[in-house]
Design brief:
The chain is an alpha/beta fold. The chain has two domains: about 150 residues, Aspartate Aminotransferase, domain 1, CATH 3.90.1150; about 230 residues, Aspartate Aminotransferase, domain 2. The protein is about 40% helix and about 15% strand. The strands form three sheets. It has a seven-stranded mixed β-sheet with strand order 1-9-8-5-4-2-3, sandwiched between helices. The protein has a three-stranded antiparallel β-sheet with strand order 10-11-12. A two-stranded antiparallel ribbon has the order 6-7. Helix 4 links the parallel strand 2 and strand 3. Helix 1 packs antiparallel against helix 8, helix 2 runs parallel beside helix 8 and helix 3 packs parallel to helix 4.
């Protein structure tokens, strides 16, 4: 019997896995009819910002996250900026370099000096030991991130912050749907700041939410999002306009109602990915500690070039030929970006060993709450074909 010829990857002239590009992510939208009926209501009243539905959204978030206060804003970045502003931070803020650059932008906009530290090699989250080493007399806060929705070591960071009398802020941009030791992230530290942009599990199109158990901070944030004006037109301090509109809040309310279902969908999708990819040499995954749940805002693999036979960048190029959209998160890491290079001194490679390694080997694959299993299987089949043809592909790329 004649042996069937193996299907070639598209980079070697084969047919792409997908006829049209499959995106890295896309929002899973709630029921349109419900959204539109509420939109019609507010269009009639003409009250379209920071009113009835914003309050409802905040109250729903409080209940879901089990916190005392939730303050809705126009973006997560605004939330980070205003939280640091309201805490009246000075001097230095310790920040992981392996994060989205908005984390660092928020500190710099507050005239704070970001002190970048390394991440853990397995969880990709900030390393508590490195945080503690970086504390000086100028340090006023720790700003940690839940990378890809994987909760940071909250207990260790809270202990360090308490011991050194520092504010502890969590950039929880990826955090909706994540839990730490069985509890939703959001009620930890001084405050947590969530993103509601279209790439997140919970979306309001654009927007953010700050959660805190500090009532005084919450009250100040509500004033800060309206220029620092409490309503008497006499600004108590300098804030800026970062209010959330009613339109965004309605979308957020409905999206929050679907969150539990969407978290389960993502968990199942990630299980399928892992089942199919763990058989490939040189492919490994982010570690989620026992008792925690990642939101899997992103699903990222680590590519060991020696074992897989191709570098992360070569694999990325091969997958692009298959019409599979992938992302190199976070590359370059913040300490290597032009805007923040001046804050880094000394031996960068030695200081950021894990960050340097992960940023050069991590690759995020397509994942969204309604991705179909057949598409995940096609993506994994494409990865397998690329691995099988790695020597030929290496020659073509080089």
């Amino acid at each position: 019997m004649k042996k069937e010829k193996a299907i070639k990857p598209a980079i070697l002239g084969g047919i792409p896995a997908f006829s049209e590009p499959i995106p890295i992510t896309k929002p899973t939208m709630p029921d349109t009819d419900v959204i539109l009926s509420r939109y019609k209501e507010i269009f009639k009243t003409g009250i379209i910002t920071n009113a009835k539905y914003v309050k409802e959204f905040e109250a729903t978030a409080v209940k879901h996250l089990k916190v005392r206060n939730a303050i809705a804003l126009s973006s997560c970045t605004c939330g980070l900026m205003l939280t640091m502003k309201c805490l009246e931070l000075k001097g230095e803020v310790i920040i992981p370099s392996f994060t989205f650059h908005a984390t660092a932008h928020a500190a710099v906009w507050n005239n704070l000096t970001p002190v970048f530290v390394d991440c853990q090699s397995d969880t990709f989250n900030v390393c508590p030991e490195e945080v503690e080493k970086a504390i000086t007399e100028k340090t006023s806060a720790i700003l940690a991130t839940h990378i890809f929705g994987n909760p940071s070591d909250i207990d260790a960071l809270e202990k360090i912050a308490a011991k050194n009398k520092l504010a502890l802020i969590f950039d929880a941009a990826h955090g909706f749907g994540a839990s730490y030791k069985g509890k939703p992230v959001g009620g930890n530290g001084t405050a947590s700041v969530f993103s509601l942009s279209p790439t997140k599990l919970l979306t309001s199109a654009e927007g953010g939410i700050v959660t805190t158990n500090d009532d005084a901070l919450a009250a100040k944030l509500k004033v800060a999002r309206n220029y620092g004006d409490s309503g008497n037109y006499d600004c108590a301090f300098s804030g800026f306009n970062s209010r959330m509109s009613e339109l965004h809040a309605i979308l957020g309310i409905e999206s929050l109602g679907d969150l539990a279902k969407n978290v389960k969908r993502r968990q199942k999708s990630v299980e399928i990915y892992k089942e199919l990819l763990r058989k490939l040499p040189g492919i490994s995954f982010q570690k989620i500690k026992k008792g925690n749940q990642s939101s899997f805002k992103d699903f990222s693999i680590i590519v060991d070039a020696d074992k897989f036979g191709l570098s992360r960048d070569s694999l990325s190029e091969a997958l692009a030929k298959e019409n599979i959209v992938v992302k190199k998160y976070f590359y370059p890491p913040v300490h290597r970006q032009k805007a923040f290079a001046k804050y880094c001194q000394g031996n960068i490679k030695k200081t950021f060993v894990n960050t340097e390694s992960i940023s050069q080997t991590a690759l995020s694959l397509p994942l969204y709450s309604h991705i179909e299993e057949k598409d995940i299987r096609k993506i994994c089949e494409a990865l397998s074909r690329i691995y099988s043809s790695r020597k030929e592909i290496k020659e073509v790329i080089n």
